[in-house]
Structure formats: C-alpha cells, structure tokens
Design goal:
Layout: H1 2-20, H2 28-31, E1 35-44, E2 49-63, E3 66-70, E4 78-85, E5 90-93, E6 100-105, E7 108-115, E8 118-127
C-alpha cells in the first residue's frame, strides 16, 4: 500500500510539473511581431491625403517571414513586408534603402514607408 501511495504521489507531481511548464513553442516568437495597434495614420499619394488619429492598424503574418499591414480606413495595405527580429521585443523591416522603415519595439509600432508615389507614416502606435 505504501508503494501504491508513493507511486500515485509521483504521478500527480509529474502531471502538475508538466502542465505548469512554460510553452516553449519555437513558432511563438514569430507571432510576436503580429498584432493590433492603435495610433495616428498619415497617408499620401498622387490623389489622396489622409490624416486620422486613434485608428486600428493590424500587422498580420502572410507566410514565412513576410507580413501585411492593414489600415481599415480606405488606405491601401502594405504587403509582402519582411521583418527581422533584432531581440525578444524588437522587429525591424529588412529594407536597406531607408524608404521602407517599419519597426515594432515592445508595444510600439512606427512606420515611415514610401513606395510607388505613396507614403505611410505611423508614429508611436500602441499595441492594442
């Protein structure tokens, strides 16, 4: 009977330790760049100029290391954006020309992106 109680106690301890252990999923770091942010959006192209405050901005994973930035305000989305992880909380666009800057640092999103006569600017959007 003592052996059974000891075996039962050991099983319970193993189950508790296994269920309380941190999830070490390697894919969770990739999802850290994705998320919803609230902030001011400024957009300009040849025929449209938009400046709106307190707007939803979503960063979504497309495939591999590419992302899409959605604006939900009639502003075109930014697609096929490549983000590189600098550390646990910082993601930066892979652009080397300096025209496509996107940075997620902790709970902050900053965008200064220019392409095809279009310009997107988001300063200090906060993770929602």
């Amino acid at each position: 009977m003592k052996f059974f109680n000891a075996l039962l106690t050991l099983c319970i301890i193993i189950i508790l330790v296994a269920s309380c252990a941190k999830n070490q999923d390697s894919g969770s770091a990739t999802a850290a760049a994705a998320g919803s942010f609230i902030g001011r959006i400024q957009y300009q192209d040849n025929s449209l100029e938009v400046d709106r405050d307190n707007r939803l901005i979503r960063v979504l994973k497309e495939s591999g290391d590419t992302y899409k930035v959605e604006f939900f305000t009639g502003i075109p989305n930014i697609t096929s954006l490549r983000l590189n992880q600098e550390n646990d909380t910082t993601w930066v666009s892979a652009d080397t020309t300096g025209l496509k800057n996107v940075k997620i640092e902790g709970k902050r999103l900053t965008i200064n992106y220019q392409a095809n006569s279009q310009s997107w600017v988001v300063e200090n959007a906060v993770r929602n």
